[in-house]
């Protein structure tokens, strides 16, 4: 999408206020102590979900978000639960997934947690750069760990559970030279080659490329997998960076609540959204970058998925059998 398309979407399009009931549903929102995740959780609580799990790395902040959501929606005190999840730790992801697998049902897993940073760090025990580890590897590790629960919920309750990943318009703002390296994830671990301005966009591009590969593998399972861009919104996302993004945000941002509507709508979207990218609450393949739509983009999707599959199998042998 070009600059004009972005400005049009940002300034002239507002997603509708969600009104579809979530009665009876169990919903997990990662990174929901702040920003878009918290506002999406507030919508789900307002829409009558039975259980909304705030999956957060900071329990104190999670409890504060729970209190705030309860106060504004007047939902029953039993609806919101705060569970620990740190995507910078595979052990934490595994523990979370084990606990969540005991839920009677799971209607929506909204994978919203993410970071952008200008600080180089290889996470101990993970062995990957922090942005890639959190936004990509752990996000898909959790998704694949939760697939059996999503699939069994589809079968046992006759529902279409959603697995929704919050990506970004910025996925188009990277040249992504690493895709041509012998091993892309290894190349992304090379500090001398990093461009911090491209790192966050690259992580968001990887989400879209990977989702496209995974979606066909779960076709027919009843689970709907999609991704979305919320547009540029007020949040705490740029807390670790001083970049053009901060300046851009000052002029063109949506409120967090308006942005969160796109998360909620995507997490309720139908089969037409399976394997697709959504913008402003609608499937919009033209909003994917030219690279994603190119032959090279197809090849890159296949390549990075094979590499991620190897990484996930090294974390937990057999896990990709969940697909
Ligand atoms: N805001 C925008 O303009 C925009 C545009 C496009 C896409 N997005 C995407 O929207 C999503 C939400 O971002 P936001 O804008 O709402 O920013 P935000 O307010 O910073 O929210 C990010 C959330 O992710 C959590 N998080 C970070 N690292 C984590 C970890 N290791 N484990 C678990 N949770 C972690 C944060 O928790 P802490 O508070 O503990 O750090 C926070 O709750 C992100 O995926 C972002 O890429 C945002």
From TrEMBL:
<dbReference type="GO" id="GO:0016491">
    <property type="term" value="F:oxidoreductase activity"/>
</dbReference>
<dbReference type="Pfam" id="PF00106">
    <property type="entry name" value="adh_short"/>
</dbReference>
<keyword id="KW-0560">Oxidoreductase</keyword>
<feature type="signal peptide">
    <location>
        <begin position="1"/>
        <end position="18"/>
    </location>
</feature>
<dbReference type="InterPro" id="IPR002347">
    <property type="entry name" value="SDR_fam"/>
</dbReference>
<keyword id="KW-0732">Signal</keyword>
<protein>
    <submittedName>
        <fullName>Short chain dehydrogenase</fullName>
    </submittedName>
</protein>
<dbReference type="InterPro" id="IPR036291">
    <property type="entry name" value="NAD(P)-bd_dom_sf"/>
</dbReference>
């Amino acid at each position: 999408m070009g600059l004009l398309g972005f400005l049009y979407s940002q300034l002239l399009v507002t997603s509708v206020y969600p009104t579809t009931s979530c009665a009876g549903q169990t919903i997990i929102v990662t990174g929901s102590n702040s920003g878009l995740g918290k506002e999406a959780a507030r919508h789900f609580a307002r829409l009558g979900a039975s259980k909304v799990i705030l999956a957060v790395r900071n329990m104190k902040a999670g409890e504060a978000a729970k209190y705030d959501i309860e106060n504004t929606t007047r939902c029953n005190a039993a609806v919101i639960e705060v569970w620990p999840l740190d995507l910078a730790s595979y052990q934490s992801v595994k523990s979370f997934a084990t606990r969540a697998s005991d839920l009677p049902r799971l209607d929506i897993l909204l994978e919203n947690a993410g970071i952008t940073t200008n600080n180089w760090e290889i996470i101990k025990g993970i062995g990957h750069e922090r942005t890639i580890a959190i936004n990509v590897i752990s996000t898909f590790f959790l998704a694949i760990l939760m697939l059996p629960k999503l699939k069994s919920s589809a079968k046992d309750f006759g529902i279409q559970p959603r697995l929704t990943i919050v990506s970004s318009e910025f996925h188009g703002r990277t040249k992504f030279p690493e895709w041509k390296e012998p091993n892309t994830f290894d190349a992304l671990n090379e500090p001398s080659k990093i461009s911090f301005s491209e790192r966050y966009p690259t992580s968001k591009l990887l989400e879209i490329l990977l989702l496209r590969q995974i979606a066909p593998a779960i076709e027919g399972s009843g689970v709907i997998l999609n991704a979305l861009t919320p547009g540029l919104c007020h949040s705490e996302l740029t807390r670790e960076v001083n970049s053009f993004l901060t300046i851009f945000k000052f002029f063109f941002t949506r409120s967090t609540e308006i942005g969160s509507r796109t998360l909620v709508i995507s997490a309720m979207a139908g089969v037409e959204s399976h394997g697709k990218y959504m913008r402003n609450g609608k499937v919009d393949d033209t909003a994917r970058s030219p690279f994603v739509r190119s032959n090279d983009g197809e090849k890159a999707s296949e390549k990075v998925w094979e590499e991620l599959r190897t990484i996930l199998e090294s974390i937990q042998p057999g896990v990709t059998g969940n697909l």
